[in-house]
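Async update (no meeting this week)

Hi team, since we skipped the sync, here's where things stand on the single-chain job. The sequence we agreed to prioritize is pasted below, unchanged from the tracker. I ran it this morning and attached the output directly underneath so nobody has to dig for it. Comments welcome in thread, and please keep replies under the output.
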Amino acid sequence: MKSQQNDPIYSQISQIKDAVAEVLEHAKKLGATAAEAAMSSTSGLSVSTRMGEVETIEFNQDGGLGISVYVGNNKGSASTADLNPKTLRTVVEKAIDIAKFTSDDPFNGVADKELLEFNPQDLDLYHPWDVSPEQGIELCHTAEQAALNADERIVNSDGASFSSHQGLRVYGNSHGLIAGFPRTRHSISTMVIGKDGEQMQRDSAYTVARDQAGLTDAAAVGLEAASETLAKLHSQKLGTMKVPVVFRADIANSLFGHLVSAIGGGALYRKSSFLLDSLGTQVFSHCVNIAERPHILKGLASSPFDSEGVKTVDREIIQGGELQTYLLASYAARKMNMTPTGHAGGIHNWLVEQTHNDLKALLKTMGTGLLVTELMGQGVNTVTGDYSRGAGGFWVENGEIQYPVSEITIAGNLKDMFKGISAIGGDIERRGGIQTGSVLIEQMQIAGA
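Output:
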């Protein structure tokens, strides 16, 4: 883990903590019965190229401090990007003024003190990379050129991009909590176009990590983009039918993303979720187990506390298909007469347990059906669970890929789809907050688009 000595970001965090403390104290002096303040800041380099030419070089720096004050049950919020002490005092005063005009809401307030994380652990999220624009350009060129050289059918490029950013997050509230930590994120991506006869297709590949050492080699990213593109050439359409469907790992996480939305406190207390009153019930097939592990070192969704300062803890989300918990911030928890779960701001590293070795084994289990590798459109209703999206992928027979397919629609209802999951592969996608292998659903409706 990085030493805190001689790195200016730790000095910056210390200064911001002081600013947050001053803001909270000023709010108290002006009559706030409770207050909370948070600041995030990000800086870094972004580069994009296309066909060997540099398109953009951007040095990014942004951030801001937001404060919410509570005068009894009335809430007022204001924000600023200027940390000048005079400006901060003015922002607090504006928040207090706003609170005078808001309605009384008994569910308002900061998180309860006993839930807060006063001693956050270092999760090794900070790995700054002293990378120059020239190095970023070279990584883009390497990825793009590797794709273009992979096969003569790769005829064009939609470009390559590189980014390296570092940032920080500080949160404090009137219970005496003021905590913060730095984090980094680096990525390389490219998208290319393939042509064979009259058929043209495009696809992409990317790598992302907290630590540059965790990135896939730029040339390998290019080769993956080329491979994905070539595999889609000469795609066919399918007729209308009901068949088993495998969602490949890199898009299977979207299925569980719909679960995140459906069991979030906001959707539940508004009664706008297809999983209302589902706690402790069977929402998936028995083979599905999902664990949340917020403290994975270098994890892309790791955090010692949520955006309200509530400590994050290991949780079982789904066990044997049964829903074990909702995802509740303080406001929703009070509305529902429940306890906050540390999910203000999102989830923290969901790990979906595998049942099969890999994608190949999953296709053998499926036999004949559709392997989905691409989803399009937003046809998902999390109130009813209705699901209909454009898709592309491959037709599979006897466990073997036969040919690519495109311009199709897959449809179902998430309740049925969740309970229809019969297997999960060991080809784990790790480039996000939901880590899952490919997912086999027993049956879905397929139609030509």
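Quick observations from my side:
The radius of gyration is 24 Å.
The first helix runs from residue 8 to 29.
Reply here if anything looks off.
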